[in-house]
Amino acid sequence: MGPALPVYLEALSDLGPAMIEAGCIEITKRMRRFPAPGDIRESIPARQEYAGLPQLTYPEVSKTERDEAIELMRPFVEELRRRISVEAKKLSPWRFYGSTPSHRSIAEQKEILRKRGFLK
């Protein structure tokens, strides 16, 4: 079957794997000989015709267009950042000190943790 394989590959090259598989499944149900590429094509069920959305292509965007879009969106982005910051402060009951030093001594911090039930 060596020389026939390139012929099959070329004849079915525009079909997707799912369509070829569906055609082969259908054709093997009723054929007694090895199917030709045309037999496979004719056996593809109608539901397999749709192979998904074509790949989207977008036009190239120039640096000028990109910069203009960024400037146009800047007020909206800044307002969104401000709102998120305000809402985050409302939601968080915890205060995280991170790398800034605590204004309480270690003993005071331990006492607070004991009162809250974190230390014995």
Number of strands: 0
Class of secondary structure makeup: mainly alpha
Task: Give the strand content.
Answer: under 5%
Tally of helical runs: 5
Distance between the termini: 81 Å
Residues in helices, as a percent range: 55-70%
Overall mean pLDDT stands at 79
The arrangement of helices and strands along the chain is HHHHH
Shape: elongated
Folded structure, characterized:
2% of the residues are buried. The mean pLDDT is 79. The protein is mainly alpha-helical. Among the domains are: 9-48, no CATH class; 59-92. It contains 5 helices and no strands. Helix 2 (17-30) packs across helix 3.
Please give a handful of descriptors for the protein shown.
120 residues; mainly alpha; 0% strand; elongated
Describe the structure concisely for a colleague.
It is built from five helices and no strands. The protein has 120 residues and is mainly alpha-helical.
Provide the fold topology:
Blueprint: H1 4-11, H2 17-30, H3 37-43, H4 63-91, H5 106-115
Helix pairs in contact: 2-3
